[in-house]
Amino acid sequence: MIGFYDYTVILTYVSLASSVIGMTQAIHGRFKAAVVLLAFSGLCDMFDGKIARTKKNRSDDAKAFGIQIDSLCDVVCFGAFPALICYLLGVRGFLGMTVIALYCVASVIRLAFFNVMEMNNALITEEGEKFYRGLPITSMAVALPLVFMIQFFVPDRVFVVCLYLLLLVVGLLFIVDFRFRKPSNLTLAFLVSAITAALVLMLLYTRYPIHIRRAPMISQIFKSFR
Q1: What pLDDT sits at residue 102?
Q2: Helix 156-175 / helix 140-150 crossing angle, nearest 10 deg
């Protein structure tokens, strides 16, 4: 079997599985479950690198494999998955498709650029501090759950506009060249606590009233081409 099999990549695969399951939930209109699974994928991604670095005897090939597999999973988890959620929530039409496409293209560019910089050890200062160039793609796992909470306080149309802006702004920040300091453990703990609190409130005390038109069944799609 090809690949590298050890505990350093398990959390990355868990993140991917969470997002794939989340996609199925979003398709069936279970948006709360989808948002929770997106946040969980982000949580896994925050710590998979820390876990991988605990293994001191990894070969160069195993390290390179870890970088590539992490980015490939991130394309699904924080590129395609959020785009699908936003589409199902109302980001539609020519403008919506344009925004979604730009977001996905920007996410791929951001990940490919990160891989190049990471392999060249170009994301570390002379003082030894690590940083990102552009907004990390995992940020969408924080931004979308927070924006999702807005829906409970504003009209549906305003909420959909917020989704358009979210995809556009976050996608742009993926590829804008600025330094973003890598979060400390304290910052990560604060983010995890804040998102967890928001998700708990969402699950316990709110309802999701947006009426989503069901997608046509496969048989109906084929009939439309006859």
Answers
A1: 96
A2: 160
